[in-house]
Amino acid sequence: MKRFFIGAALLGSVLILFFVIWYGQREQARELLPPEEQIVTIHGETLPEQPNTLLAIDPSSQTVLSHIYEGLYRFGANGEIEPGLVETMTRSEDGATYTFNLKASQTVNGNAITAETFVDHFRMLADDDTNSPFSFLLGDVLNAKAISLGTKEPEMLGVKAIDEQTLELTLERPMEGFEQILAMPAFLPQTMIGEWRNLDVNGPFQVESIDAAQTTLIKNETYYDADRVTLEKVVIWTDEGLSSEPDGIHPIPYGTDEGTLESLEGKLVDIPRSGVFYLKPNVDEYPFDDADFRRALALALDREAVEESLARAERTTERLLVTDQTKMETTLEGEAATLFKDVLDRLEEEEIEIELLSFVDEEARQIARTIETELEQLPGLQVNVVELPLGDKVRKEVAGDYALSLSGWQPDYPTFSAYLTQFETNNYLNSSGYTDETFDRLMNEARSTEALADRNETYRQAEKRLLEEAVVIPIYQAGRSYAVDSRYAEIGFPVIGPSYVLTFSKVFEK
Q1: Rounded to whole angstroms, how far apart are CA atoms 53 and 50?
Q2: Intra-chain end-to-end CA distance of the chain, in Å
Q3: Residue 248's closest CA among 10, 494, 2, 482?
Q4: Bridge-partner residues for 160, per DSSP?
């Protein structure tokens, strides 16, 4: 019997090896289309709104900017952050100074991208006169906070050009892993600001045309790594084209029927994103100022009941740090109805009526109704859902004029702190009224921790504190689904940052 199992295992290994070799040969046998047909088409995207890298907040603009500029770091085909113009990076012995040796790069107009280019750009990002929503990304750089407040001049920023190809960046304190945020679009080396077609870019593509129907990018032959760029053109259509254009890349809208999906060319790809949606109580409002009341709601929420209302790429979660790969045990224990009854007795209430603030959207409507049903299983609780247009809802939430909100957050930089800072006592984004010395201490401790693994562990403790206090009740992680043409290869879909990465994509014959 033992011999049989050994033989079966060997046979299985041989079969696996055969299929691996066969698949590899099959992929190698595929032929690239000729250059004039190296075109990737994307449907259903909004037009990019802002050509200024320091001000662009909409995903379409950030995605286009990430393809027409290249900075110190970039998002690779696998969605991971990798060196862009950085040839080598070293840290000083005290860990506070980063030195970047740069690759040679120039713009379409022949202007060199040097260390001084980045110095000028970083100073503009920090300058309070620029009023960039991303100036906070430089918060750990020497003097950046004072510059953003207008108490120091931009020239005092901890960044300087040692020579044309050597850039030095000094932080307020030692910090491992700081370079990861430098892939974000705000750090792209923009030497001039103008209309999309007139930008002097240094990335793999440049804008050929843009109108109400489409954005067209073409290969930038002056790109330093142009020999590795196979695509000649990228055409981005605002029309979904689900019924008329089955090929290309299609973001799948919420509620798309199965018949339409089956008609599309290629495979369906479900991509998790950094966004997380949750219930956010206003802890200054009665009865949400009672931690046990909040915990009872958190325990009563059955996330499985919400699953049917989610888009295909979205996943329920009990975590706020949805990009964290480390598993964490749930922190709330007990029985919801028992805890809720204790709350009613202590507050001397027979029943409690609460308002759930939501927004006008079909998916949000279904989720809010499910939450209403789930929470009202607590005897004596009544939930009233109030829908508002998104802008009105956000204004009420920012003003703290709400009790319980179906809210969400999508960080635009790859650190755990991006999820947590909005709950700190003095943070301007803190609309929940939460203030807690333990949480603030953990956040400050994390910031002063040099080692990335230790820093992240402290952020997990801060997250655990929020979940234990039911200051935030996570529901699901955002995601997006695409139908991707079977001829396309090496399309990157990052969890954070641009919606897709096409730098080294290719188009094969069917």
Answers
A1: 8
A2: 47
A3: 482
A4: 168
